[in-house]
Design a protein that fits this description.
Rossmann fold, six-stranded parallel beta sheet, binds adenosine monophosphate, elongated, about 400 residues, alpha/beta, single chain
């Protein structure tokens, strides 16, 4: 069975005067100093195209739903979708009515009124049934729509009531949105026959979170460049000195396991570093792979950046996940920004996935030079590991 999108004729011809229930990922980061202000609206902006495409087809109602933060199954005003409703109304130039809860009895009445075309359900995670993938909760949500649209790529790796179980109630009436379509098309260029040479760059902090993707990537990549705090467990496993750099014993064991696989020859590790005596303190260059006692590695050094650049130049497909250092501090951002600049200059398919590398690319001002920036960190990694996601499988094949 093929996955149907809202571009499908069966959607276009059916939607007029119908109620459309649509699941998005509006889980945007908020401003730390002003909790009513959205710090980065990218996820909402990316959903607008789908919302507008549905509205153009003149449905009777468009009921939007999303999770927001981690309220742990309880009503918590801190996680109200109110700022999202305001932002959407501004962008769409139309009223967006926020319900009191997703199970509000008034919703049924609202659905039959002529006014208020766009309704946003309050945070789904105010109800413990959402994360429990509860069938009755999914059934209630399903009564708000004749057709279902799923565009929450960033939540597609979750088996929750609104991402998974809900498909039990929309047999042949469930469609993917335009963001989901873009994400799948881009990720398939990595997962299915990537153009060669294929080079992956993995950075960030936790080996344990990324071990599966590294093992998977070692099968298909030509080179795997490892930077950031990810590199130290590998260097230590090779018998190098790493000073006081971030590294757990558990991660060294995982790194040792990877270095024992046939793909180990594809791994490229840093050969020099930017270090400091204290976390984020005065930077010093160390022109060798070993980090002296008492020093903390906080960025890749210039020779490593050059070496990584040389491997990237001929690449036709590049996947980047995780920064090369403590890039939030400008003293340790050169490696990460350097990689962003190299990717921007390549004639290749470049995909950036994972929260922090996306932030780094935004910081570099080079976002529009990348072929694709994934909106879902965890979701994009799981897609690459498994070739699909539960929310996409359920949408494609339905569930009983
Ligand atoms: P992750 O979520 O695993 O991609 O990790 C991203 C975080 O790792 C960012 O906040 C970086 O500042 C941090 N990071 C990257 N390299 C280092 C390093 N060498 N030392 C400490 N933190 C680092």
């Amino acid at each position: 069975m093929a996955l149907k999108f809202i571009t499908d004729e069966s959607f276009k011809t059916n939607v007029k005067d119908k109620k459309v229930l649509a699941r998005f990922d509006f889980n945007v980061p908020m401003d730390k100093n002003d909790p009513t202000k959205i710090a980065d609206p990218t996820r909402i902006d990316e959903a607008l195209e789908t919302i507008q495409a549905i509205l153009e087809l003149k449905p009777k109602k468009l009921v939007l739903m999303s999770h927001f933060g981690r309220p742990k199954g309880k009503v918590d005003p801190q996680y109200s979708l109110e700022p999202v409703a305001k932002y959407l109304a501004e962008k769409l130039g139309q009223e967006v009515l926020l319900t009191e809860t997703a199970l509000d009895r008034g919703i049924k009445i609202l659905l039959n009124l002529n006014e208020s075309k766009i309704i946003l359900l309050q945070n789904l995670r105010f109800h413990p049934e959402e994360e429990a993938n509860d069938r009755d909760f999914a059934r209630t949500l399903s009564t708000y729509g004749d057709l279902f649209v799923f565009d929450a790529f960033g939540a597609a790796h979750r088996k929750h009531a609104s991402t998974y179980e809900i498909n039990a109630f929309f047999k042949n009436t469930a469609y993917g949105g335009l963001l989901l379509k873009r994400e799948i098309e881009a990720l398939d260029k990595i997962v299915k026959n990537p153009a060669k040479p294929f080079v992956a760059i993995v950075g960030g902090a936790k080996v344990s979170d990324k071990i599966k993707i590294i093992e998977m990537l070692l099968v298909s990549v030509d080179k795997l460049l490892i930077g950031g705090a990810m590199a130290y467990p590998f260097l230590k496993a090779q018998g190098r000195e790493i000073g006081n750099s971030l590294c757990s014993e558990e991660d060294v064991l995982l790194a040792r396991k990877i270095l024992g696989t046939p793909g180990k020859g594809k791994i490229v590790l840093p050969s020099d570093h930017i270090v400091s005596a204290t976390f984020g303190g005065i930077p010093e260059e160390v022109g060798q792979a070993n980090i002296p006692d008492g020093k903390i590695g906080l960025d890749i050094g210039p020779s490593t950046l050059q070496n990584f650049t040389d491997y990237l130049r001929p690449a036709k497909t590049v996947l980047w996940n995780g920064p090369m250092g403590l890039f939030e501090n400008p003293n340790y951002a050169k490696g990460t920004l350097g990689i962003a600049r190299v990717l921007a200059s390549l004639d290749a398919f470049t995909l950036v996935g994972g929260g922090d590398s996306v932030n780094a690319v935004k910081m570099s001002g080079l976002s529009d030079k990348m072929s694709h920036i994934s909106t879902g960190g965890g979701a994009s990694l799981e897609y690459i590991e498994n070739g699909s996601l539960p929310g996409i499988q359920a949408l494609k094949f339905g569930i009983d």
